[in-house]
Amino acid sequence: MTTAVDGATLATDVRALQVKVGGIDADISQINDRILGLDGKIEKMGSALGTEFRSALSSLGTQLGERNRTPWGILISAAGLITTTLAFVGSQALSPIQTDIKTLKEHLVPREEINYRAATDEKRVERLEGLEMLLVNRRYDEMQKLIDRLERQNDGLRGLPSSVVAK
After folding, report:
1. Neighbours of 72 (CB within 10 A)
2. Considering only CA atoms, which of 81, 56, 55, 60 is closest in space to residue 71?
3. Residue 135 above 90 pLDDT?
């Protein structure tokens, strides 16, 4: 499929493109003008702020220089502000330490409790030793009774004739 392009169609297309390109160029130049205008305004604002700041400092210096007395109100206010700031920072630095100390205190066993447990454990050990000795003595007595009984039986067998006793 071939399309024929005539000179008139091409000319209108070229003019349309030139109009669009011309419109873009105009937009770019407007943006450049706005940026340059903003730069100027920012520079003026910066210089005005600097001038105002310098004049404020010089007037403060003049006021302090004209007075022959010390501005105690300002100095006390500054000292109070510094003290408050340091107290706040210090409390923030100490709060984790205080929290850890509180946690440790909650988990600690009082000395009286430790002494009570130790005494109770000693009493238990003494009782167990006493029970052990009692059991050993009972076992010894039982064994002694068994030995005595076996000796009596053995003595009773000695008096029998040898034909009755199995060897």
Report:
1. 8
2. 60
3. yes
Going by pLDDT thresholds of 50, 70 and 90, the confidence category of residue 2 is very low
The distance from CA 15 to its chain's CA centroid, rounded to whole angstroms, is 71
Q: Is 90 exceeded by the pLDDT of residue 56?
A: no
Residue-wise DSSP of the chain: ------HHHHHHHHHHHHHHHHHHHHHHHHHHHHHHHHHHHHHHHHHHHHHHHHHHHHHHHHHHHH--S--HHHHHHHHHHHHHHHHHHHHHHHHHHHHHHHHHHHHPPPHHHHHHHHHHHHHHHHHHHHHHHHHHHHHHHHHHHHHHHHHHHHHHHHTS-TTTS--
Look at phi and psi of residue 128 and say left if phi exceeds 0, alpha if psi is from -120 to 50, else beta: alpha
114: left (phi over 0), alpha (psi -120 to 50) or beta: alpha
Whose structure tokens read 């399309």? 3
Rounded CA separation 144/71 (Å): 106
Question: Token digits for 99?
Answer: 């929290």
- In percent, the amount of the chain with pLDDT more than 70 equals 78
pTM: 0.29
